[in-house]
Amino acid sequence: MEKLLRGDQIFTEVGVVENGYVLISDKNIKKIGLNDDDGTEEYEEIIIPDSYILPGFIDLHIHGFLDIDVTECNVSDLERLSFELSKHGVVGFLPSLISASSDVIIEQVNKIRSIVGTKDGGARILGVHLEGPWLHYERRGAHPQQWVRNPEKSEVKKIIRETKDIVKSVTFSPEIENAVWLTEVLSHAGIVPIMGHTNATYEQAQRVILAGARHVTHMFNAMLGFRENKNELGTIEPGIEAAIFNHDSVTVELIPSPTFVSYPLIELVWKLKGPDKVILVTDAGRGTGFPEGYVMEFQDGRKAAVRKDALRLIEDGPLHNALLGNIHTLNVGIKNLARHLNIPLYTALKTVSLNPARVLGLQKSHGSLMPGKRADIVVTDRELNILMTIIHGEIVYRSAKSKD
Fold it and tell me: Is the omega angle on the peptide bond into residue 133 within 30 degrees of 0, that is, cis?
């Protein structure tokens, strides 16, 4: 039976509908209309008072949640991850692997591939994001130092050959050896080349952008930009940020937490790139969803804790307390963006729906509420707390509050 979902405000691709409905049929959106013109069709009616009906969220960069780490987990963990994310309004995501051996990367990608399209009841896996292993050593951040390396052509070809059907994006440092070649190979394989974890100069970034790089991993994190010009005292050399801002084709990821990026910098990106080129990501990892003080240990022996609004490294060396990952969900990120930049919620929503869908080339079927598109829908209260998540027309999560 068709479902008819009523809400106070419906945030469609072309505007906000007041006191309207969304009619869902055969897993897609059949019609969006006003409450006084829903006709005589038979349907299951769902009414949630004081609610927003929003496009479902898409997270292009997430490493884990609770006790789950994508780089180390098993298939049942991935299924559990999908369901947990749906509780937070996520309808689609890219599980993101950090730097590891080529064998581990291929093994984990195979696990992810094995459940794509086989399970309902949670956020859909839209592909895989490889963050590394081809990163600059000095800007590796939380990546294990033994697995950060330059791209050897034989290894790159092997990983692409084994994974190109499901890997959708790869983050690499533009200044490393063979970076232009890597960009071209990824582009030819239909994989989005992403710049990140970098000390790149303007010229180094420019080369990979011209070769096909068109996206940036967590802007302003693990990234060195403008720097003093050693040849001209008192002047500044442009870095990768200048190249990013000067190329309209490049989209930008932001972690919408002041712990990672200050609001003045977020505002700068918003003004220079515009609302269609900014994508919010969680970059969440194992530990997200646990309380302050939670401590965990990874298989490689590293330890981390939830501390001071982030996941942080525990060690005796200089990286003690370094940021490992964000612990906020996308609905919190949207709220932060809209409130602190004083922008309409309608505009902010693009950063977690239509914009990430465009990066993946899925904008014709995903990323917004329009007739004919997939019925991937989130219902929230006015504070953006998740009340219901609908994925491909099926209710996969419903909060206790929405049942009252």
Answer: yes
Q: What is the mean pLDDT of the chain?
A: 92
CB 354 within 8 A of CB 13: yes
**2-53+371-402 belongs to which CATH class?**
mainly beta
pLDDT score at 404: 66
Question: Where exactly does CATH 3.20.20.140 map onto the chain?
Answer: 57-291+324-360
| CATH tag, 57-291+324-360 | 3.20.20.140
Q: Do the beta carbons of residue 58 and residue 90 sit within 8 Å?
A: yes
Q: Encode pLDDT of 2-26 as tens digits.
A: 999 999 999 999 999 999 999 999 8
DSSP letters for 344-381: -HHHHHGGGTHHHHHHTT-TTTSSS--TTSB--EEEE-
The position carrying tokens 């937490």 is: 257
Q: Please list the alpha-helical segments (H only) found in 236-384.
A: 240-246, 263-273, 330-341, 345-349, 354-359
pLDDT at 46 over 70: yes
389 in Cβ contact with 91 (< 8 Å) = yes
Residue type, 53: I
Q: Are 119 and 86 in contact (CB under 8 A)?
A: no
Does 170 have pLDDT greater than 60? yes
CB 213 within 8 A of CB 183: yes
pTM above 0.85, yes or no: yes
Q: How many CA atoms lie less than 13 Å away from 294 in the CB half-sphere? A: 17
Q: Where in the chain is the domain with CATH 2.30.40.10?
A: 2-53+371-402
Report the residue count for the chain: 404
Listing from the earlier edge strand, what are the strands of the sheet with 323-325? 295-297, 303-307, 310-314, 323-325
Q: Residue 197: what pLDDT?
A: 96
